[in-house]
Amino acid sequence: MTEQYIKALKIGLLNSEVSINEPMKNHTSFKTGGPCDVMVKAYCEKDIKLVILLSNQYKQPLQIVGNCTNLIVRDKGIKGIVLKISQGFDQVIVYDNQITIKSGALLSKLSKVAMNHELTGLEFASGIPGTVGGGVSMNAGAYGGEISEILVSSTFLDEQGNTHILTNEQHEFTYRKSIFTRKKWILLESTFALQNGNKESILAKMNELNAKRKDKQPLNLPSAGSVFKRPLGYFVGQLIDQCNLKGYKINDAQISTLHSGFIVNLDNANSQDIINLIDYIKIVIYKQFKVELETEVKIIGEN
Question: In this model, does residue 1 exceed pLDDT 70?
Fold first, then answer.
């Protein structure tokens, strides 16, 4: 990382934080991961554009992250710059039955805004810990609801920092995927269309779903939610249980004893422990059922 690049960042940024050798374990929900060369916490669109332009100018690799709740960062960290778009870039506008919200907002905030304006359709997202940007990119879903069902459009920046708008269909949504999982685009904001509802009923539904999460998911330990995508015709947790792997550990990385679809950090696991456990689960499941598991969590960083 060149001194000129860092100097240019610090001079040009308007409303953002710059950290050098920032430990990613302080940001990931697994509480693991090595340092990144530079982290920029961006709070405005102009700063996001500047990071893109300077990264291109100085030929520095650029990695975009949100709330880091669906992410494993390898123990050697990340070369180049990490652009973190989360709280601080979370402004929201409500007009009639539509909500337009910046990509750094938490999905839980989006759900609460909808509830307070008596708009229904986002109850399923109230307990998902990620950002709007991550939720749209991954077509986040739970309890029968998905982002693709309510999204109208998104505004994004391409690799050169140019602004574009996508309609719902142009997102190319599939299960836990969209065009954003294939492109190096930066999502700025999204608009959602909801239905009129009753605040008390919406709150009751959110409380019901969050109670289910607390009952069935290991929310008291560091994790990244469901590790694997659901294979067609199967439930991952059931496959793991049938292989007697519930509770299996590699050092302090453990298959949750509460929900086998989750891996938890008991205390001092590192990212490689978690990755090794993921690989072991894949091998065992394939040997027994000939089912190839695909990770839902994203793994990035230096090997």
Answer: no
